[in-house]
Amino acid sequence: MNKVLLHCRPGFEKECAAEIQDLAAELEVFGFPRVINNSGFVIFEGYGPEDGRILMEQLSFNQLVFARSWFMVLAELKDMDTEDRISAVMEHSELLPKAGMLWVESGEGDEYRSLLSFCRKFTVPLRQAMRSSGVLTKKEHDKMPRIHLFLTDSGNGYLGYSRSDNGSPFYMGIERLKFPSDAPSRSTLKLDEAFSVFLTKEEQEERAHSGMKAVDLGACPGGWTYQLVRRGMFVEAIDNGEMAPSLMETGQVKHYSVDGFKHEPIHTNNRWLICDMVEKPDRVASLMARWFINGWCHDAIFNLKLPMKQRYTMVSDCLNQLSSALRHAGVRHEIKAKHLYHDREEITVYVHRRK
Asked: Model pTM?
């Protein structure tokens, strides 16, 4: 129980590995990551026999920016008989907790696509075997542990589990969202996913409901504004470009042709600030700090565009810079950040002003 497997976006394995190694070290868990470039997963192996369990119990999944999902490895499966993989898996069933769900997974990189297709097919007979043995509940239960079988190829893989209260609720950490046909751009999916990842349903009802005022910096053509309008908010759209006519026709959007870095809010009771500007990440972080310090918003979701190199370092520096500025100004806050499925060379950050 000294290994943890983490899913990430293909191409970001090094960032995911650096992050889990740093956070593990803070808990005095020391080890090394195994990385396969463009695979979409990382394995962290601790030197202590219980290091995987310690990480799953003491490290919050929400602290991980680059990991989409994770689980503790209980057994490494090698050279399975491809005619009877179920028996090979069930040999280790005594290690598994009573669980409510089974996920058969693989990497997300291009070379794993055919394997993922097999994973979906293999889930059905393996689930039946686990239910018959009593490892799985007869019906799916999303509040119980989840069993993970991760295949690296047709005969090898890792078996383990994750806790439902400390991990992603989505298969391989990916929430599949449907693109709204009337949205101005596909960027709308990033904000839709961000609301789902960062806020519980109860928090969304409390913090993001109809009638609230919001500001969108760098709004055009309106992909992010669309999500606020859909939730019944009234939006100041700040951009020198053109907004989608469909949004302007709602009567919920006022467009101001102003540079997002120079704009000051028209209203003083804005609940939300959103920002998806293509700009240096440290400059965006400073702008967000300014809005909170001046009392211009209570909640913010924004993207930080990442450089080609030192991406993990840049993320850490920007988040520390933002948090330090808010603490120095006496702004009580919480910050969450995640490399979302719909993000590419960027991460998404949520900041909430605490009372």
From this structure: 0.95
